[in-house]
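User: Teach me something about this protein's shape.
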Amino acid sequence: MKSQPIDIRRTLGTLGALTLLASGSLLTLNCGIVVPRQGWSSKWGPLVPHGKFEADCGICHIPERWDVLRSDFSFDHEKETGRLLEGAHARAACLRCHNDRGPVRFYASKGCWGCHEDPHQAQMGLECTRCHSQENWRPGALVAEHQRTRFPLLGLHAITPCESCHAQAPVGNFRGASPDCALCHQADLARATSPDHLALGMVSSCERCHSPLGWDTATFTHDFFPLLGGHSGVPCAQCHTNGKFTKRSIACSSCHAALYQSAPNHVANNYSHDCSRCHSILAWKP
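Assistant: First, the predicted structure itself:
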């Protein structure tokens, strides 16, 4: 092959005419490094015939073999086309874009989905950069993006795998998840026996007692009888022995009658049942 001067602009114009005999449908492509950038893979089908390419074959090929390209071949994509290739696109093989699908400019004008099939089926919009970068398809900034929804990710929810709530997350469908705690936490609800949530009908409005930091530590605004001192940290069922959580008497003797009976001289001297006259909520002694 006789070497001739390279008309790089002409070369660029003819690259779009390369035919890749692999598939006539829209290709779903991974822009990662599979073969050298100017290389070719046998997985893409037979060698690419491009008889209409009128420039010198030596621009790309070595003289000995058609399926091996020159190691020193280079192409300034930004300079020659005005389009800068970044991230994984800068490392992708030329034939990923320049193949038999048609003119590259047609697909480039459509944005990401011109080359990449949308696994979200357009349910997440067409602005892929909201979650993805050009380095790879692994999404980022999902917690921040989720803050724009009706269910901001706080506490343990921020580190929970997407598919725990979005069953179709592996195929890119993030729609339809309910913010109702019980729908995701059925197993936790069934295990809640102190008190027995199911028996008492405590199956909704979990945020009244629980926070996204965890199920184990529950809080409840006990306004009618502040839980201070020795009353703090006491299991609910210790006072609500009948399993009902409606308001009950706040008189000390309603819970501490046995202690009154066993205390020295209390019964004999008919001490008042108003324990607060001598005791505090910090402890019985002193």
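Now, about its shape. Confidence is low (pLDDT under 50) at residues 1-33. The chain has nine helices and no strands. If you'd like, I can walk through any region in more detail.
User: That's plenty for now, thanks!
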